[in-house]
Design brief:
With 211 residues, the protein is an all-alpha fold. Helices cover 87% and strands 0% of the residues.
């Protein structure tokens, strides 16, 4: 049960860390750069090992499509730029929730207890992942929806844990992996495109408010 609490509720640290760091003007730029670096690393960590193990180049292609498809849509329909980013955020959140389901199922006690290094790795990458979610949603939609996004991850983890390892074996297929890869690419797009605009704007507002 301790494993479950640590993994499921690690995302709750995200809003605390965000406000501690983002309320300090000197730390804002550094924090934003951290997010730009963290997203590709998290996506690579999630996608590349599976791609290598399965010898499946489609996963890399799916990430690439997730990055570039919103660009084509925005250029074809300029008025849909904000909607495209909102859909990409929603898709990305759904992919992260699927990932959380699988992680919750992976730490279900079976014949052998969950591996401690695995649990630690899951817990540690949950924190930057949740920071990215808060970083994307909070400036655009406010506290309530950002908290709902974090809560969605917690709920998905608890659900995966309750469904157990049979659920894990049934869902760990090529389709689920490709979907996670595609929506991971869409998150990269939003972070480097609209995310930069949102946070430049919020930083300006912060300086004006304190100026």
């Amino acid at each position: 049960m301790g494993y479950l609490i640590a993994v499921a509720f690690a995302p709750l640290l995200a809003p605390v860390l965000y406000h501690l760091l983002h309320d300090r003007p000197s730390a804002v730029e550094t924090f934003d750069k951290f997010v730009y670096l963290a997203v590709p690393i998290l996506v690579g960590w999630q996608v590349l090992p599976h791609s290598w193990e399965e010898q499946n180049a489609l996963l890399i292609l799916a990430v690439t499509c997730g990055v570039i498809l919103p660009i084509f849509v925005e250029r074809a329909f300029q008025s849909m730029a904000d909607e495209t980013d909102n859909l990409a955020i929603a898709a990305g959140l759904s992919g992260l929730a699927l990932h959380a389901l699988l992680e919750g199922a992976a730490i279900t006690p079976g014949v052998t207890p969950p591996d401690t290094p695995l649990v630690a790795a899951i817990m540690l990458h949950r924190i930057p992942m949740s920071l990215v979610i808060w970083w994307l949603i909070f400036p655009r939609f406010g506290t309530t929806k950002a908290a709902a996004g974090i809560g969605f991850l917690v709920l998905a983890t608890l659900t995966g844990y309750s469904l157990g390892s049979e659920f894990l074996s049934g869902l760990e297929g090529d389709g689920a992996a490709l979907y996670q890869a595609f929506v991971s690419g869409s998150l990269i797009h939003v972070v480097f495109h609209q995310g930069r605009h949102d946070h430049d704007h919020s930083t300006d507002n912060h300086h004006r408010h304190h100026g």
